[in-house]
Amino acid sequence: MKKILKYLGGLLLLVVLLASAFFVHVWYFKPYDINLFFGKTALQFALSSPEMLSSVRVFESFGIDGHNAKLDDASLASGDETFEKILEAHKTLLSYDDEDLDPNDKMSKDVMLSLLDIVVEGQRFRYHNYPVNQLFGVQNGFPSFMESTHQIHSMGDAEDYISRLSKIGVKFDQVLEGLNHRENLGILPPQFVVTKVVEEMNGFVNTPIEDNILFVSLAKKMKEAEISSNDQQEIAQQAKDTIEKTVYPAYQKLIDYFVQLDRKVSENHGVWNLPDGDAYYTLALKFFTTTDYTPDYIHNFGLQEVDRIQAEILEILAGEGWDVSTGFTAAIENMAVSPQFYYSDSNEGRDQILDDYKTMLVDVEKKMSSHFHDIPEAKVDVQRIPAFKEKTSPGAYYQRPAMDGSRPGVFYANLYDIKATPKYSMKTLAYHEGTPGHHYQLSIQQELEDMPFFRKMVPFIAYSEGWALYAERVAYEMGMLPDPYDNIGRLQAELFRAVRLVVDTGIHAQRWSRERAIDYMLANTGMTESDVIAEIERYFVMPGQATAYKVGMTKILELREKAQKVLGERYDVRDFHRAVLNNGSVPLNILEQLVDQYIVDKGA
Description:
mainly alpha, about 0% strand, 3 domains
């Protein structure tokens, strides 16, 4: 028996040594199999981001949760290290010969290359951004992350929450390091950014601690987790002390920086004003649209689409008895001010909006089988954007579900200005953010089997936002918008994306002022002024991103028309949607390859 145990022990040791040697080789050298490379690369980048690990929640089921007490490293040194990893990954990926790969692996290589190529090409523009702005940054991202992502199911989770609060001083110092570096490079934000982030942060630090989202969220989560009263009181006191002594002082240091920066900026320019700004914007368009479209092409296409969609809206308005003789702007404004289209400007009215959004998503899910084969397991919830950042946030956004099923997808609705939520626009917004839009597409992507992990997570904006805009039209084709006014809401949403093509390129390539862009969008969309200002200011800090929606939708529609024409009676929209969705988010050129292959397979 001793000999047998000794033999088994030796065998086990050998297995462990071989496994360790295999791991070391894969981790530090080029893996022999490209899928091992994909896994290694995704894991290396994931391990460098404890916040992302908390979001996707893939390790918690294995009892690995130390990352939940940490924050991402935002230092310049960490950024340098990450960039070196990207360059090394790019070099390694290119070393795999296409001839040695099967079609699926070749596609995964192409997908990853499309990301890495643009990063390598744009390395000289690494600091051409505004990491703290009115839309995103550590100042509002941290509270939102703690409220929406950091889960509390035990006392240990609550202690991790406090640990993260205690680290925010270091995180803010790292962000300040990057801001000072950009300032030295001549990369300064538009003036309105400075004003708005100071206003936002002052509001945050002037909130009594007991009313701050960081404290309120912690208290709510501990109560729901049924942590003992004594432990809740202990953690609550630690939170108060940490917010007072660490969190608020960190915010104040960032406020002080932007107050002094305000003396150095006085204009609101597009990125053309940055060093080599025109080249940077061209690359930004390439990144977000995954095309080589020029600013002029996108601008002119946008103008054409604005004219076409406005004509369709005017035709519907005329059919409903509205006076359209004075043109689009007057006609849409006359309709928009009608009280019949709005909820009461009260807490009750806002609660009703959220309830109605939820009902809309339940209703569309019942009709999905007419246009789709597949239904994801992940559920979707509707919540209001947190009040502390609602004023400067967009009209809505979506957060994907946790991969372990512990958190549903969430459609966040902005209810700050009740006039920005007309009833006729709500269904289209629900379908865009929920089903069959973002929630549906991202849930399908996340639940794909036999797919490298990075492809379950990778975001190509032209694909994902193009799909969500396309989904609005699909919902109309499914019969979900029988009311003519709801269809006007859909067309207004598409018009809004066409106008984006015009104003984004106007701001960054044609040097439009903030005011000219606002005036153009007000005149051509029928949107409220508060929404228009928030949108235009968004384009200033996210150059090129807003063009991806309409470009992506247009490509999907072109490919659908091609499939219908070639396949004839063999065409089934459900098969087309499966071909578009079941490889996850991809660049538009690869999407075209997928649809072409679907056409070949169906026509065989």
